[in-house]
Amino acid sequence: MATAVHRGLAPLKQELSNGAAVIAQHTTTHRAVTIRGSVAAGSGHDADSALGTAHFVAKVIDRGTASHSTDALAEAFDGRGVSLSVSVSRHLMTFTCTCLAEDVEEVLGLVAGVVTTPTFPLNQVELRRTSILTSLRQDADNPAVVATDALMAALYPGGHPYGRAAKGTAASIQAIGRDALVDFHRAHVGASNLRVVIVGDVEADRAVRLADAAFGGWTHAGGAPLAPPPATPRGSRTSQTIAMPGKVQSDIAYGFTSVVRADPRYYALTLMNTVLGQYAMGGRLGDSIRERQGMAYYVFSGFDANVAEGPLMVRAGVNPSNVARAITSIDEELTRMAAEGVTPAELDDAKRYLIGSMPRMLETNGGIAGFLHSADFFGLGLDFDRRLPGLLEAVTLEDVHQVSRTFLAPDRAAIVVAGPPADPVAAATEEPRR
């Protein structure tokens, strides 16, 4: 049975006979259609002995299908001006493209072929292996990536899927053969965990019919969604320095685990994080560390609730001589917010910004597709766009103060600094000042 929401975005959702879910939203702004879909085949499904398999599959899955050779598939997409993007998160393998409205039936068929019957040509496997190894070398030479990856490993130890190397390692990628890619696809990619969102100048009921024609005959079930274990909150502060000779900048990654997406505190944490420094040079962190003290090339905070407790992270890039001072300043800003909360003006500004940004977020087909896909993945409902402003407005000063006290605890932070060899975090191992 189809269910429709007639206000706000008014999406239509239909479950196909094979278990796949299709969500369609009709828009008429442009003669174009965005297709965004996913399967439960993210990096969290990688075997411990074969890290990077999901990422490898994503790089080769669009290199040929049962009905199209590598060149024929590329020509079919290129001839319609379509670029198919395939990416991997911890939970999902996601495919996205935009096409002209008159091409949507053909493009859905091409996308369905990529998802359901990839051939993983051996020559393309080897080409993509080389590309992935190059990307890994570039990541290993980037202090920001090194610091962030090391922080995730510190926050999610013991083989937790959020803490493992999503792209794998040079050794694991070298060891993954074509058969492993085929086996991963067979084990994890299937109709029962397929979600397809279609947004654009195509009537919603027709979009569902086209998706059914493209995917409805797929009978392979696939694997179960990733169910990661809870993340254990840290009980003490730790610091790690990673020496990277030849670099002139040090990158700081400083963080905690927070909440699952379904936690009611999500909205208070979102507003707190916006005040703290979600948007690069803005917020308390940017005002203190970059603007008033002039210490950081960049500084911001990020909050990423997920199926398991996601990270709450502060990131900064500084001159190596300023690392200890910058960490102390982060400690001080977090301690002050935990003790005092945010001001009424800050909370009002954060609410106004987040609620006011929704029309901009939903003004493109791609933005709408991403919003609906995320809302469905987290079970937030087809009417989430209409409920979200009220959920944010309902957050009180005390709600924000409570999550600040709970989660902004410098004495339980994990800190990683990657940059020129030195001893820049000696001061960070000391107990933060209260």
Could you give the topology of this structure?
Layout: E1 3-4, E2 12-15, E3 21-26, E4 32-39, H1 53-60, H2 70-78, E5 85-88, E6 93-100, H3 104-116, H4 122-140, H5 143-155, H6 170-175, H7 178-188, E7 195-200, H8 204-215, E8 238-243, E9 250-257, H9 266-276, H10 283-292, E10 296-303, E11 311-318, H11 323-340, H12 344-361, H13 365-377, H14 384-393, H15 397-407, E12 414-419
Parallel strand pairs: 3-7, 8-12
Antiparallel strand pairs: 1-2, 2-3, 4-6, 4-7, 5-6, 9-11, 9-12, 10-11
What does this structure look like?
It is a single chain. This protein has helices spanning 53-60, 70-78, 104-116, 122-140, 143-155, 170-175, 178-188, 204-215, 266-276, 283-292, 323-340, 344-361, 365-377, 384-393, 397-407, and strands spanning 3-4, 12-15, 21-26, 32-39, 85-88, 93-100, 195-200, 238-243, 250-257, 296-303, 311-318, 414-419. By secondary structure, it is of the alpha+beta class. The protein has 2 domains: 3-215, Metalloenzyme, LuxS/M16 peptidase-like (Cytochrome Bc1 Complex, Chain A, domain 1, 2-Layer Sandwich); 238-429, Metalloenzyme, LuxS/M16 peptidase-like (Cytochrome Bc1 Complex, Chain A, domain 1, 2-Layer Sandwich), CATH 3.30.830. The chain has a 7-stranded mixed beta sheet with strand order 1-2-3-7-4-6-5, sandwiched between helices. Strands 8-12-9-11-10 form a 5-stranded mixed beta sheet, with helices on both faces. A hairpin with a 4-residue loop joins strand 5 and strand 6. Helix 1 packs across helix 7 (178-188), helix 9 packs across helix 12 (344-361) and helix 11 packs across helix 15 (397-407). The longest helix has 19 residues, at 122-140. The chain is globular, with a radius of gyration of 23 Å.
